[in-house]
Amino acid sequence: MKPIDRKTEIINVSAKLFKEKGYSAVTMRDIAQAMDIKAASLYNHIKSKQEILVLIIIEIAEEFTSVIDEILASDQTTIQKIERVIQLHIDITLRNSDALACLNNDWMHLTDDDLIYFIKMREDYEESFRKIIKSGIANGEIKNLNIEVIIFSTLSTLRTLYLWYGKKKTIKPEVLKANMIQVLLNGIV
Amino acid sequence: MKPIDRKTEIINVSAKLFKEKGYSAVTMRDIAQAMDIKAASLYNHIKSKQEILVLIIIEIAEEFTSVIDEILASDQTTIQKIERVIQLHIDITLRNSDALACLNNDWMHLTDDDLIYFIKMREDYEESFRKIIKSGIANGEIKNLNIEVIIFSTLSTLRTLYLWYGKKKTIKPEVLKANMIQVLLNGIV
DNA sequence: ATAACAAACTAACAAGTGTTAGTTAAAAAG
DNA sequence: CTTTTTAACTAACACTTGTTAGTTTGTTAT
Prior knowledge:
2 copies of one chain form a homodimer. By secondary structure, chain A is mostly helical. Chain A has one domain: Tetracycline Repressor, domain 2, CATH 1.10.357. Chain A contains 8 helices and no strands. Chain A has helices spanning 6-21, 28-34, 49-73, 78-106, 112-138, 147-159, 161-164, 173-186. The longest helix of chain A is centred in the middle third of the chain and has 29 residues, at 78-106. Chain A is elongated and about 60 Å long. At the A-B interface, helix 4, helix 6, helix 7 and helix 8 of A face helix 4, helix 6, helix 7 and helix 8 of B. Chain A binds a DNA duplex through residues 6, 27-29, 37-41, 43-45, 48-49. Chains A, B: Keywords: DNA-binding. Chains A, B: One of its GO terms (molecular function) is DNA binding.
């Protein structure tokens, strides 16, 4: 019973490096050095560099997918649903911002089935969010603006939260959440 | 008098490739192949791979810097200034979205003086935007919310516009602008 | 004590990297 | 027509890449 197994450690260290320089610019020797071992030793724990990327990205992508499915299926108001989506992004950002950065920047280096699977999940996620907004427009909870603009504005902000948090850790999570709900829902004017 | 000189062509082709796979994943042979020549021939026009990156990024960064300086110095209302910032991002996105993607994703592969210079410009840009928002809060044009949240929400959306335009070309620029102003300033509820 | 395993190591390889040197063919300038 | 310039080429370089093979060492189970 170890506090953290070696494979997980490799994944965490890799995610941090991938965030800083991008998947392609990080070598197996870089990862090994950050763990104080030799590159060849990594292969006692992982199959390939590709596998590291897959393990980092797919798990988080699946979490996003499953949570938004649950939100969409619930019988809450549109406002409440959007608030929960905001909460979801904040939660994952706080818990694992390295992996999130990796998902955002390096997903295109996935290959074959993993790439197809990821793109499918991303499309499904956006489609679920679109359904939430659409029904909000239908029942008057949301303004009747161009739906694509609404979706991309909101998701852009949520998806790149990891870029800001880390620099501005002075803001407490609850305050962040409250302000983001204000800004995204009611605007700044 | 050629319609477009060879060096510019290399920069444009490179920007497109960098956007798709990232700076590190694109080889000189990739760039050459996209132009139907050999990798060595590129060196008749450019000094190094690094130089391509610098030429792509710095020019756009300078444009952002100089325009926002002008906006900040003008005597318009805060709302008008923000609208002009939105316009600025839309303009550059429409004109050169490949370079913009490159600036967003690959700036960390700049080196030495170029890196320092870029980071300085980015900080200055954010500081100028912060000043605009701050004076808007001071005179009551903008709600008194957490200023960092306002800044990062707005800039996140503007900076990643290139990810969405290209997929959703059905939206006309004027419509895009009008809707973005609505969403960013007045919210969606 | 002995066997089995986990996880590190050294050494190496084949492929790919950015880049340089030297050459050639066609176009522009004199 | 001759010279210069432009922009392509081939061939090669030194280095880095992900990865494999085989070995060693300390820990765990029998």
